[in-house]
Amino acid sequence: MDFSFLNQPAFSGGGVYLDWVISGIKWTLLVSILGWIIAFSVGSVLGVLRTVPVAWLRVPATMYVELFRNVPLLVQMFIWYFVVPEIVPQALGDWLKTKMPMPEFWNAVLCLGFYTASRVAEQVRSGIQSIPKGQTNAALAMGLTLPQAYRHVLLPMSYRIIIPPMTTEFLTIFKNSSVALTIGVLELTAQARQISEYTFRTFEIFIIATVIYALITLTVTFSMRWLENKTRVPGYIGGAGK
Amino acid sequence: MIEMKNVSKWYGTFQVLKNCTTRVDKGEVVVVCGPSGSGKSTLIKTVNALEPFQQGEITVEGISVGAPGTDLPKLRSRIGMVFQNFELFPHMKIVDNINLAQIKVLGRTADAATAKSMALLKRVGLDAHAQKHPGQLSGGQQQRVAIARALAMDPIAMLFDEPTSALDPEMINEVLDVMTELAREGMTMMVVTHEMGFASRVAHRVVFMDAGEIVEDAKKEDFFGKPRSERAQHFLSKILHH
After folding, report:
1. Residue B91 and residue A143: Cβ atoms within 8 Å?
2. What is the ipTM of this complex?
């Protein structure tokens, strides 16, 4: 094991190889966190829509989820990057291909975001459906509208219940962000491969990458655990079986 | 005040309510009883449209419950309802449970709502528990809070759907006492219950249901004295003899 290559001048870019690693971390975090913001917001809306008693809202949400979670992420990445610019109106397609700043990056963010949204939607849906029907009835019986019942009664409990599975989704988006290397985003895995090719320190650099991924995901896990404790409801054991 | 005419309801091809006709006058206490699965709970939930029905008519103070243009949240806010499983909102403090609809539906200020909530909690003997969460209270206490929550809306009538069926035996009386007091004060009440002692003490009329039909609808004295139908006699003999 020899980690001294980190301080050697890099093949290009003027810095040392450590700078490549740091740049890789930066893009991994950016792609993942922006993707998560999309996934969480879009997924929450879709998850709610999948549970409403209005067919024309529920059906499109279900179709979205089935489409996005059943096509492999890698294929979706290629579709966003190579296919979408060809099938949208030509002016937009030309802009996507030539003028859009950082096209790999934004395509990766959108792809990861909209793919993970389908998985978040399923968690939100199962959370809402785990709340006993009587809770909705009680909310409606006191004169709340259905949106108010979601806002004040169903969602506050649902989000608490789904913190553990949502943690898994949040972790997965960091790991899935490595797929972005296939369309040219120089995130952590791409940088590790590149460094390995220039320095032949394959073991060392992938050990470093692994440790960094582990640190990121452990941080997420502990933050979510903190959130779970912070939002714990006193005396609440669970809504199952009611 | 509440009038039901020939109400029928089907789940698919299975008819759960068959031409149910009855009424609850102002200040009257009507107990609905009958074997499990006879449609009692379904019937009481049609009054505030928690259960839709396909045929017949229900009016509350002249307003049709089933008509498409009826403002259901407004109608429901005027009828209090208490459920078998209490259905307090677990993530909210006791006082916030009672405040919620006062603020969101009636538009009361937080101060006015809290004053009302505290007065009602005092009345049901639970003002010391205002800052706790539902999970920290016993079943009987939770049900008394649920009654206070319904009363906070100044309802014109109260619906009770098996309010003591989920309670341990030693807690049934504390809930029945609150209900008895309400009845003495002249509250209009429709009560689904198996508590025949409560019915014989407090009810004005008893409605007996079996297999989705109202088999008997009689003054309390007549029902307990000499039920006309064989089915009601059979039911009474089974539940009064132990």
Report:
1. no
2. 0.94
